[in-house]
Specification:
The chain has helices spanning about 20-35, 50, 75-90, 100-110, 140-150, 165-180, 205-215, 230-245, 260-265, 275-280, 295-300, 330-335, 340-345, and strands spanning about 10-15, 40-45, 60-65, 90-95, 120, 185-190, 220-225, 250, 270-275, 290, 305-310, 355-360. It has about 350 residues and is of the alpha/beta class. It folds into two domains: about 10-150, 3-Layer(aba) Sandwich (Rossmann fold); about 165-360, Rossmann fold (3-Layer(aba) Sandwich).
Length: about 350
């Protein structure tokens, strides 16, 4: 630690609420905090949907997840949050969310006899006592690293750090073995997104075509992973591939969030949409290609040295719209062809005409 931070930091609260992929991404910064304060008691405040990511995490003595965005219980839940945080008597709060919502709560915690003196955040100004001192790029990981650098903390974690239980590794290993799926001989597709963000989906037809191209080039199996919101597109991909190459594709539809990690750990590579599951899979450090269109790869690319984001050259990129102005299908994503992804992911072609590729150095 640098002399910028006084000693005596024994109890730390880290705040990171959402979204799911952003919480997974933040675990790299969390790992750096853990290394900087190896003897401190570490607590995490997140939302219920993300709490499952930390069910077996040894870095935290406690993880609490109150439904702070539930409008029906807003006043009571916020009162409980403030009471709990005050009672814990933290020496330091690190706000990796740094939204207007968390800033307001920390402003309340800055007053009174039991105030939390040290409050770090990603945005300058009140109520934070420490914030990034330099302007950085748009990626959330860059802002988190800038904050830790301002505190004199070494930022050495290059990808998310998550902790599935040993039983989860064993369960997924047995599942893949029963299906005849061998490490290094399969690809993983993460073809979904939240139902409200369907515009980020590359599409079942293109994923199915890519799966068949990969199989013809020596990839033995294709493993498709998706949650309930994504079941329709996942099932369509598997059915289309198996119609031409029976038994090649399988849909793993009953995995927990943390089981995504052992399922992806043996993959030759991963192809994904801009989805929260891709950020979880990035913890494996397997080669990953993330297909972007309406969202900016410079902001949303999962963290990791083996992650590449692909985006087509198109006039209306990064629109962040819920519907495409040109019709029912996102034209920006349609311009990324399965043959182009094959060339990038399997053949090692560094660039394809008409596509932009983003990585850690972009």
């Amino acid at each position: 630690m640098s002399g910028k931070i006084a000693g005596g930091i024994r109890r730390i609260l880290i705040i990171k609420w959402s979204a799911l992929g952003d919480v997974a991404l933040a675990t790299a910064a969390i790992e750096d905090v853990r290394h900087a304060f190896p003897d401190a008691v570490l607590h995490l405040d997140t939302l219920p949907a993300a709490a499952k990511l930390f069910a077996f995490d040894p870095r935290f003595e406690a993880v609490f997840a109150l439904p702070l965005r539930d409008r029906t219980r807003r006043l009571r839940t916020h009162f409980l949050w403030l009471r709990r945080v005050r009672a814990a008597r933290y020496d330091l709060i690190i706000d990796l969310q740094s939204s207007d919502h968390t800033r307001l709560l920390l402003a309340v915690l800055s007053i009174g006899q039991s105030r939390v003196v040290r409050r770090w955040g990603l945005r300058r100004g009140f109520p934070y006592t420490l914030a990034p001192t330099v302007s950085v790029g748009p990626h959330a990981a860059a802002r988190m690293r800038a904050l830790l650098a301002a505190a004199g903390i070494q930022t050495r974690s290059l990808r998310p750090v998550l902790y599935p239980h040993a039983d989860q590794f064993a369960h997924v290993s047995a599942l893949l073995q029963d299906l005849g799926i061998q490490p290094g001989r399969y690809a993983v597709f993460l073809p979904g997104s939240q139902a409200a963000s369907w515009l980020k989906r590359w599409g079942a037809e293109r994923y199915a075509e890519l799966g068949l191209l990969l199989h013809r080039r020596g990839i033995e199996r294709v493993v498709v992973i998706g949650a309930c919101d994504e079941a329709d597109v996942c099932a369509e991909i598997v059915a289309s591939i198996n119609a031409e190459a029976p038994g090649v594709a399988v849909y793993l539809n009953a995995l927990s969030l943390l089981e995504v990690i052992p399922a992806c750990a043996g993959a030759a590579f991963i192809v994904a949409n801009d989805t929260g599951t891709a950020h979880i899979a990035a913890a494996t450090n397997r080669p990953m290609w993330v297909l972007c269109g309406p969202t900016d790869p410079r902001r949303v690319r999962p963290l990791g040295p083996n992650v590449r984001a692909v985006q087509a050259d198109y006039a209306c990129l990064n629109c962040y719209r819920k519907t495409c102005r040109w019709g029912p299908r996102p034209r920006c994503l349609e311009r990324i062809s399965p043959h182009a992804v094959l060339a990038l992911a399997l053949e090692g072609v560094p660039a394809v005409a008409g596509l932009r590729v983003y990585d850690d150095d972009t």
